[in-house]
Task: inverse folding
């Protein structure tokens, strides 16, 4: 009798009631973000990039010559953290800093040949990651979800 009650209590501990949290937008966003990032981190392991570094390479690829401040502001990354990221990407040979044409005191960022190759492969891996997410969302899920997420994200 005692063993049966213990097993029942243990089963209850292993599966807590999460109904209220499942109705929380913030909690659902966080869980979805963790799941999506876990998949993306795994996908980008092949090219030895973290998601934030991939995002920086993406912005540089689409906007060659932007300076560090412009990119860090656009991505919402604190300048001190961004400098460390740029240092790391530069030491890996993925980007170069060149004097900016508009302001020689700042540095314009460009992908190197190696950076372009790594970024192109990372973009393919990211596309595969996005396809996995879209499969989970089903038809029209992306078109429904993105506007809602951007409504929350836009200040």
Result:
């Amino acid at each position: 009798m005692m063993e049966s009650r213990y097993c029942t209590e243990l089963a209850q501990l292993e599966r807590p009631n999460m109904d209220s949290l499942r109705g929380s937008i913030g909690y659902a966003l966080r869980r979805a973000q963790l799941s999506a990032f876990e998949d993306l981190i795994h996908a980008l392991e092949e090219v030895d990039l973290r998601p934030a570094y991939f995002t920086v390479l993406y912005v540089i690829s689409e906007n060659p010559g932007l300076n560090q401040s412009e990119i860090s502001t656009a991505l919402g990354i604190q300048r001190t953290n961004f400098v460390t990221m740029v240092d790391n990407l530069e030491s890996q040979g993925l980007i170069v800093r060149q004097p900016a044409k508009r302001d020689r005191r700042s540095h314009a960022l460009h992908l190197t040949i190696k950076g372009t190759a790594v970024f192109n492969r990372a973009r393919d891996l990211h596309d595969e990651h996005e396809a996995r997410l879209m499969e989970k969302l089903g038809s029209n899920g992306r078109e429904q979800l993105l506007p809602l997420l951007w409504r929350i994200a836009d200040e």
In short: The chain has one domain: 25-153. The domain at 25-153 is CATH 1.10.10.10 (Arc Repressor Mutant, subunit A). The CA atoms of residues 44 and 122 lie 6 Å apart.
